[in-house]
Fold this protein.
Amino acid sequence: MKAVVLKAYGGTDQLSYQDVSDPVPVKDEVVVRVRASGLNHCDIDVRRGVFGVTQPLPHVMGVDAAGEVAAVGPDVTRWKVGDRVSPHFVLACGHCVNCREGRENICLNVQILGVDVWGGYAEKLKARETQLIALPESLSFVDAAASMVPFATAWEALVATAKIRVGETVLINAAAGGVGSHAVQIARLAGARVIASVGAADKVEKVKALGAHDVVNYREEDLAAGVMRLTNGHGVDLAFDGVGGDILKGTIKALADGGRIASIGAHGGEIVDIDMIDFFRRHLTVMGCGRFTREIAATVLDLMARGDLRPVIHDVFELSEAAKAHALMESRNFFGRIVLQP
């Protein structure tokens, strides 16, 4: 089969489109023929060697994918050849105490697809039968690969963890990005007033079209000042952040007293100084989140199939163009998700 292989850590020149051996299922394993795979910022970090997890090289990246069952191991009972599926990127063991309690997203023995094991930048991938999610028949492979992960990530953060409430004012940072553009829709669906933050003027109307009521361009206006202007000095009840760094600092200032932050990442700065005096006096909360369960994935897939949630896709590239797709993601000159298609 063909795959995009990471030969060594570094630039896009380290990605090689080449032949590799087909995966062979054993025991309860399933081989999935990949029809589409989404790009994630963690792919960039893995390629550069800064993700924090060392991969035996060569390596095949790709956190999320969608396709159909191509082959099954002798012990598989849940799936048959031809079934439409998507692997859950959180490859939970299914046996630890957290898995037994339904918290597979914080499995004690977790592996991450495309990080710890070969992932979706290939014509085929392999997973255990308990690590797959059924795709609705009406949902295309491209839409599923593009949006299951960002919608489910946003749902886990905003709905399951932060307990978003109808009527709250919610700030969505990086609202033009792959996850942020989908988080806007989740917050709007939950009945919140949505304030989005973006870093480019041409993205303002696009995030409004997704459901944002107001937008702050942090390149033109201080983020906290903009939020306070839009909320008459009150601040937001809840913020969704995957940026970290100075944006997180501004977000903390933009919170109302008793406000909370759902943090799913920190690509803009992992180490952030916090004034803890201000933090506890204002009764603020930061919640780490971002890894969802298969139940949450199934929920958002159903909402997508019904048309309640709309995939946001910037472009679709051939698998052989993975280096070009990576360069686009690094440029930040995109809106929504970037997809690869074998």
About this structure: The two ends are 10 Å apart (CA to CA). The CA atoms of residues 122 and 195 lie 38 Å apart. The first helix runs from residue 41 to 48.
